[in-house]
Write a structure and sequence with these properties.
Two copies of one chain form a homodimer. By secondary structure, chain A is α/β, with parallel strands linked by helices. Chain A folds into two domains: about 230 residues, P-loop containing nucleotide triphosphate hydrolases (Rossmann fold, 3-Layer(aba) Sandwich); about 220 residues, Rossmann fold, CATH 3.40.50.300. Helices cover about 50% and strands about 15% of the residues of chain A.
Chain lengths: ~500, ~500
């Protein structure tokens, strides 16, 4: 993989002087076309061997292009705020919006590779990380992002020479750290791990480009042209095809699904409700104050047809909680900052810190519900939504987030009754809009979408709890009981 | 100040049961009117004596109203991310957008008061903090925010009774900490400091409301009504008048100002430019790698007429820097998330961490330049902009941020020459827009705005450097030299 980067490429001063101005000019123009179109973001990953010119290249790109529209992020060890979230959180935060270029100096590859080289991560864990990265990058590309992955290579002797020459010059001495020499001594293991990582993550949609880092002029022209080509191709054409998702699920032959087989006759009398409500709320309060909760966090998702009782159920939960413990995120139309990012970005930004809870009133499942039914995204988009969502929730779970998902189910008849009631009650009229009546006409399409959603995203990690909410009182208690059971078990499991 | 909160208010169970439902209903309706109008945000501060029912009230408000549209933030000790920024940074981050309610449990008062009670802050420092808070709240109100400040009071014996009864009940025992008892012992000092603080910050636009915390039913109805009244009044009418700013500055009688008295004939030959550029860039690079820089950060502001050379000057600076050290923020139209916040919010969000730099290509000075000249805001708005900006920069400076501000000055003739050049150069055409020609017609108005800006915001803390940029080469070197001098002195001064 690295052989062709060790044969010793070189570019003469003369050639460089001849070619550099035009390249620079073309890059700047491409950058401005990108900015004006604002159709997609560009992510450039800068990784590789120490001393191979990563830092110089990052600076050069900022010099060649307009640095005002480039967001350069260097990643060192994670900050406390970052370690309290899934590992990809800080990279999501650093993603450039459409029209901009993000240069990630060090990236989502750095930590997994180092952990593996230093023996902190087992082979299986490493493979798992690489698979996660493949999914992440595939999602980025499918969302339109141009991903350019640069690997700066240097042979072992060349690295030694380079580090020594940097150390000799008083102006550059600061750039060589004891860490660099330590990694130099681990060169063989490092390169071997990297080679595997590159091979397994060099996908059709986001391939690696190995850069010979030994000679600055060659390296600079090579990288410049590579970026220019990729940018020009993408500006003039569609994004690379991501392998197509499977065809949409066929509906069950017998017409039975999780919704129409639910027992909607379950009722809970008011007196028993009050008692159980008090008990379950006390239990929930206790659980959230459990010392073991300090290392966990909680993401609760509510979905359901209009008027299914999401708001009132959420209030029964929040009544039991310390107001500092939780935040409710009502999910409506995205803001323009959110629209300039991949679909899941607006949910990543709200992820709870340790010891905290976030309650989503509607959620990332909009992708496979309203967006699917209303045709706001293509079939390919919502079909890839299922694995993307499963990935997302897996990352939450691995970071210690307890994920609870509730579908509040009611019948169309009950919905109609509630709509009418809302219309007739002065202080509830604001809750009913023409949209609600329109959505109601699409009930069968929604029902099918819900059924597919449960089939594809109810996982061991984050199971869907389908609640018969025809009777509000029964529904609320059922939610609280299941939530308590889930949280209790998660805390016991450690 | 607290006497009337100690006379023992009480509400019977019967009265509470009669009044609570209507109050609750009215609050919910007001909240929805707020949400639909989305004209202003509401900030509710919850402060006061331990055990006076602050937490219960926060929970109650979340229960009475729709918690999905309330953002509750509890403030404990500052996180590392927060301590690296000015103290108000974390409160800016917690401000609710227009249409929403933010409940701040603990607020910008907590830390200054505690520091004073524990003797960590001297009287003068405390007074300074209070003045800062007055300015901050006045700005919030002037920007349209409804600020409701609640102070929960309890007499010393009542506090003792309350803490003991909380400790007796196993369900509430967790809420009493050793800290609470420690503060109980300091009750007299605490209340005395608080009384002074309340007196000095009970302004016409953001008065304090003292709540008798001894009896829950009275307390709840009192707070509920108070919020309902404030909300209703504001929904039906204009914000309270903030004392009017002074009249706009009169132009100098002799017509001389900082711009027209500048020597535009300064020139630097290319050969000398190259040499000095290299020297100054090396010096800047050294300064940013100085170990003392790790505890400081750097905010560089560039303003100037169109085509004054901001972009190319910024590039000469960034060429000298490690790409991980800085970020360039080009300031254009605000996003919708920014529009839903006070004017300065969009700049606060970009403040650098320690050891980092942010370069603003245009800045918060837009308020007193383009917004003034184009009439995007009222005269009162841009007039209050001057002290608001000075406050902002003072906070930056106190947090260790080195603030450098450059006005790049050119003559109208030179601008015309550069516009024409841009039009004639293919790869520069994207840089010239009809807006540029329109702005040009308003040159005299801009010149007056610049002159006022320099007169009012060139302070000891953050001086304006007015640069003769008629000759680009001279301008760039002048900027670099002054920047180096400024940073060098700041590091020497510690």
């Amino acid at each position: 993989m690295f052989e062709s980067a060790e044969i010793g490429h070189e570019v003469s001063k003369k050639t460089y002087r001849e070619q550099e101005p035009a390249l620079r000019q073309a890059l700047l123009e491409a950058q401005y076309r990108l900015l004006e179109q604002a159709h997609f973001p560009v992510v450039i990953l800068v990784n590789g061997v120490d001393g191979a010119g990563k830092g110089e290249t990052v600076n050069l790109l900022n010099e060649w292009m307009d640095p005002r529209h480039i967001r350069t992020e260097g990643f060192g060890p994670a900050s406390p705020e970052e370690t309290e979230r899934p590992t990809l959180w800080r990279f999501w935060r650093a993603l450039p919006p459409k029209g901009r270029i993000g240069i990630l100096f060090g990236s989502w590859y750095t930590e997994p590779i180092l952990s593996r080289v230093l023996g902190r991560a087992k082979r299986a864990a490493f493979q798992h990380e690489l698979e996660r990265i493949r999914h992440f990058e595939r999602m980025l590309v499918a969302e339109g992002t141009l991903v350019i992955k640069l690997w700066f290579h240097l042979s072992h002797p060349a690295q030694k020479k380079r580090l020594e020459s940097l150390e000799k010059d008083p102006h550059t001495r600061w750039r060589v750290t004891p860490e660099d020499w330590k990694r130099y001594r681990h060169y063989e293991e490092f390169v071997s791990v990297c080679e595997g990582a590159l091979r397994e993550t060099s996908t059709g949609e986001a391939p690696w480009h190995v850069v010979d880092g030994s000679e600055p002029r060659y390296r600079s022209l090579f990288v410049g042209r590579l970026i220019l080509d990729a940018l020009t191709r993408r500006l003039n054409g569609p994004p690379p095809a991501v392998s197509p998702p499977p065809p949409p699920p066929t509906p069950p032959i017998d017409g039975r699904d999780v919704l129409n087989t639910l027992d909607y006759s379950l009722r809970l009398p008011r007196v028993r409700y009050e008692k159980r409500l008090e008990r379950e709320q006390a239990r929930l309060n206790q659980l959230t104050r459990d010392p073991r909760m300090r290392n966990r966090s909680l993401a609760i998702v509510f979905e359901g047809m209009d008027a299914a009782g999401k708001g009132s159920t959420i209030r029964r939960i929040t009544q039991a909680l310390d107001a500092r413990f939780y935040r409710v995120i009502p999910v409506a139309a995205p803001t323009d900052e959110e629209r300039a990012q991949p679909y899941l970005w607006r949910f990543w930004r709200h992820l709870p810190r340790r010891g905290h809870a976030v309650i989503f009133d509607r959620s990332w499942y909009g992708r496979v519900l309203v967006e699917r039914v209303e045709g706001f995204c293509s079939e390919a988009d919502w079909m890839r939504g299922y694995p993307e969502i499963n990935d997302f929730e897996e990352q939450l779970a691995e970071a210690g987030v307890i994920v609870a998902k509730f579908w509040l189910a009611i019948t169309p008849e009950e919905q109609l009754r509630r709509f009418r009631e809302r219309e007739e009650t002065p202080h509830k009229q604001f809750k009913i809009t023409p949209d609600d009546w329109r959505n109601r006409e699409k009930w069968p399409a929604y029902e099918r979408a819900v059924s597919d959603m449960v089939a594809r995203t109810s996982t061991d990690i984050a199971r869907w709890e389908v609640i018969a909410a025809e009777d509000k009182l029964h529904g609320r208690i059922d939610v609280l009981e299941r939530l308590n059971r889930l949280v209790g078990r998660a805390l016991d499991a450690g």
